[in-house]
Amino acid sequence: MSDRRPFLFDAHVELGAKIVPFGGWEMPLAYATGTVAEHLACRRDAVVFDVSHLGTVRCDGPAMFDALQSTLTNDLHKISPGRAQYTHLLNDDGFVVDDIIVWWVSPSEFDVMPNASNTSGVTSALPGEDVTSQRCVLAVQGPRARQKAASVDARFGEVDRFRVTRFDYQGAEVRVAGTGYTGEAGLEIAAPNEVAERLLRALVAADVTPAGLGARDTLRLEAALPLYGHELSLSSTTLEARLGWVLGWDKETFRGRDEVLKERERGPARLLAGVTANGRQPLRDGGEVLIDGESVGLLTSGNFSPVLERGIGMGLLAGEFEEATPVTVALRGREIAACITTLPFVRKVK
Fold this sequence. Notes:
This protein is α+β, with helices and mostly antiparallel strands and 350 residues long.
């Protein structure tokens, strides 16, 4: 079965994108300027990613609050309509089925945003309609993201961090959240297909740099943001990823709660840690982390940091290790000198 093409596929090709398969989709990896230039443009200015491969499950109705509250880990009582919340969906054994952003659009309406390959798993766990194919999602990220988006429509500049709003844009309702996956300020715009290409072209005309999945990955890694299938998976837990704050301990129930309570009592078997190479050699997932010749775990993600100009990686390690502890990463027959690093590697913008 061939990968799905996003609605904006032809526009990306016209903009010079290199297309690669990702999560069952054909998505832009990078454009003509390349991943490092796109990465630095996000850290210094503003970029736009097409993240339409992410799912949208629309949950609309008076019973939806209770359905989400009793299934997902975080506590919706912490927020209110017009806000977004990061949360997890666990299985009955307490492992992570997906990490999710919930956009609370109106009192009885929620847009649940799962990862690309997990939409069907979320629709089977929650009552809702999969509307992924009806809209595109453009993520405008960087210190000048809101400013440049506001030059397209002033209302884009009014969406603060983790706020959610909706308004008419050129005859269609767009939904906008102050969220993203880069560690920078910005917003994500869910635009109906009929206006999505016009919006993309307007953003590019406003000097917002198109960026692909390559930069999105290096940006999220510098900011120590977990990636499903790497730091989070059906063989890892929320507590191992140091994300206990997304667990609603005071809630009566959420899926997997009993196992999570047991894990909290005994302590997680592994903990997420950062590793920085002593040189420019990129680190990669699967690299074995050694301390004094003994394995303490594997890297779950790794790459080259354009900001630090060093190889960096994250891994689930058996123990708590002090900052700057020397380690060796065994990778593809090579041994790379590195050290334990406090996360995030690059401090996130508030």
